[in-house]
Sequence to fold (432 residues):
Amino acid sequence: MERLNSFSTLGANEIAFAADNFGTPVYVYDEGTILDRCHECLNMPNAYGLTVRFAMKANSNRSLLKLICGAGLHLDASSINEVIRASLAGVPYDRIMLTTQEVPQGEARIKLEELMLSGLKYNVCSLRQLRQIAGFAAANGIDIAIRIHPGIGSGESATRNTGDDYACFGVHLMDVKEALSIAEANGIKFRHIHVHIGSGADPIIWQQNIDHELDIISKHFPDAETVCFGGGLKEARMPDEKSADINQLGNYAKKKIEAFYEMTGRKLKMEIEPGTYIVANSGYAITRVIDKKSTSLLNFIITDGGMEINARPLLYSSRHPVYIVSEDGTQVKSSEFESNASGWEAVVAGKCCESGDCQTLDSDGRSIPRAMAEPETGDIAVIGGTGAYCSSMTPFNYNSHTQIPEVLFTKDRDLKLIRKRQTLEQMLENEL
Ligand SMILES: *Cc1c(COP(=O)(O)O)cnc(C)c1O
Fold:
C-alpha cells in the first residue's frame, strides 16, 4: 500500500476505495490527523490553565464535532445556529462560547436567552450587543465575555485579517471606556477578555498579540480571569510553508502570563481557538480527472470537483497540494511532497462555467500550472489541506451541482460515511 504523504496513514488504495464506493467528488477526513492536532493543542505550555476551543466554522460536521470535543476541546461558535448544531452533536452548552456579528432580535433573542440560561458563554463583539444583553446578564447573574478589537491584526490575506482597522470585529479599543461604563451601570464584570486577530496569522504577530492583549487587560480589565488569544494558528498546507510552533507560542504566553502575575498578583487562565490548525490537513477532496485540454499556453486537467468543493484558491489565492493517484489505487503518481521529475505541468480546473474555477491560481486570480505526473482520464486528483473552510464555506450548489458527501477515515482504517450526498430533490425542495 502506498501512503499518500508522511503525515497521514491514508493510503492510495483507500482513496480509490472511497472514490469507487461513495462516488466523486467526496471529502475524506483522517481521524488520526485530527486527534494528533487536538492533543498537540491541549498540551500547549501554559501558566495557570488552558482551554482549547475548536472554531467550528472551520468544519461543523457533527461527527467531527463529536470527535474533537470527545478529545477534550471546547467550541467557539460564530452564530446561534452553530450553537444549536453543536448541541445536536451532544456538546453541552457550557463548553460553547458564542462570538458573533449577529445582533439577535425577536425569536433569536429569546433563543439566545434560553441558551445563556443553559450555560452558553456569550462574547459580546459590539457596544450594541453589550447594551442589549447587559440587563439580562446582570439580572440572571451570568458573566459575559468581551471581544476587543486590538487595532492590529494578521492573516494570510487581507480578507482574513480580523484585527486591523480595515476589519470590524469586536469592540474597538477606543470604545472600551464606554463598554466599561455600560457594564458598571448594569452591575456586570468582564472576567473573560478575547481577541482574534485573523486566520493564518504570522506567528510573530501572534506573539506580539499576546503582549498587546495582556497590556490591554492590565490597563482596562481589573476583573479579568481568563484571556483568550483567539485562533489563527498557521497550518502549513504546502511543503514550502511553515506551521505555527505551538510549543514555542505556548512557552511565550506562559512566560508573559507569569510576568503578569508577578506584576499584578492575578493568575490568568488562557484560551486559544484554533480552527484551521485542528482540521485543515486532515481533509482531502477526492476528485476524478474527467477530461484533459490544452491551449497554446497551458495544459489543463478537468476534475469533477472544483470551486464548489474548495473555493479557497478563488477566495484567498490559497495554495493546496495536488496528488495524482492511479485509477486502481495502486500508485501515487505524483504529489507536492515528493520531487517531481516528469516535467509535465497543468492547471487543475473544475467543472463550473467560471474561469476562476481552478485549484491552482496566483494572487491575481490567474490560472497557473503545477508540476505533476500527467494523469489519464479516470485517474484520481486529490486536493489536500481541505479539512477547514471547504465543506463549511463553499458555494456548493453553484452550476446546480449537489453538495458532496463526507467520509471519515477512522483510526482502525475504516471509511465511514458521515454525511450523505445531497440529492437534486433536496437542492430544489424549498422552491415554490
Ligand atoms: C474563525 C475564528 C477562529 C479560527 O480561526 P483559524 O484561523 O481557523 O484558527 C477563532 N476565533 C474566532 C472568533 C473566529 O472567528
User: Anything to note?
Assistant: The pocket of pyridoxal-5'-phosphate is lined by residues 55, 57-58, 76, 78, 99, 196, 199-200, 230-233, 273-277, 388 (CB under 6 Å).
